[in-house]
Amino acid sequence: MSLLEQINKQKTKLSHTETMVKTADGKTVCENFVGNTFTSNQVSVSHAGYVVDLKPDLQVAKITENLFLGSQDVALDQNLLVLNNITHVISLGIPVTHFPNIGCTYVNVLDLPEFDIRRVFDEVFEVINEVIDKKGKVFVHCNAGVSRSASVVIGYLMRTFRLGFEEAYEMVKAQRSCIRPNEGFVRQLKEYEKLINIEGE
């Protein structure tokens, strides 16, 4: 008996089994191999091809005594806002529910490297300063509280306290470790540092 014949004979003794396969596009497929016949059937609807974290991000990162940073999950939680004495919410690119006795400012900001985030600085900084001057507390957020809102808060610290980009970035990251401004925002903030230095001379 040849080797090939021996292999084929042993194959007939193998138990039938089904294999569940998750494809790169998130589909779950049931694969069967019976005799010389292979079948593949989708058994569930398509899901994202990555793991989705559905847990709410409820961190209220205290950057200064009156300035806080986080995700939209916080902005949607009235009890959490009240608990942290937030009097005003600044929403960057993500409109949220307005709650009684809590002011809200919406500013359209796209999380794209080519978006000129510096063009919203004056508007946002003015709101922050107005709230702080009235002894209020400001919560700044975007969707995840990682890029847009972090960039604006970094810019605010740079302008208000005459900090360099790296120092302001580290100050914010120390309070909210997940921040990650997109590469375009980082470039713009470094250019903003030069502008602040020129104005300060």
TrEMBL record:
<dbReference type="GO" id="GO:0008579">
    <property type="term" value="F:JUN kinase phosphatase activity"/>
</dbReference>
<keyword id="KW-0378">Hydrolase</keyword>
<dbReference type="InterPro" id="IPR020422">
    <property type="entry name" value="TYR_PHOSPHATASE_DUAL_dom"/>
</dbReference>
<protein>
    <recommendedName>
        <fullName>Protein-tyrosine-phosphatase</fullName>
    </recommendedName>
</protein>
<dbReference type="GO" id="GO:0005737">
    <property type="term" value="C:cytoplasm"/>
</dbReference>
<dbReference type="InterPro" id="IPR000387">
    <property type="entry name" value="Tyr_Pase_dom"/>
</dbReference>
<dbReference type="InterPro" id="IPR000340">
    <property type="entry name" value="Dual-sp_phosphatase_cat-dom"/>
</dbReference>
<feature type="domain" description="Tyrosine specific protein phosphatases">
    <location>
        <begin position="122"/>
        <end position="176"/>
    </location>
</feature>
<dbReference type="Pfam" id="PF00782">
    <property type="entry name" value="DSPc"/>
</dbReference>
<dbReference type="InterPro" id="IPR029021">
    <property type="entry name" value="Prot-tyrosine_phosphatase-like"/>
</dbReference>
<keyword id="KW-0904">Protein phosphatase</keyword>
<dbReference type="InterPro" id="IPR016130">
    <property type="entry name" value="Tyr_Pase_AS"/>
</dbReference>
<feature type="domain" description="Tyrosine-protein phosphatase">
    <location>
        <begin position="59"/>
        <end position="198"/>
    </location>
</feature>
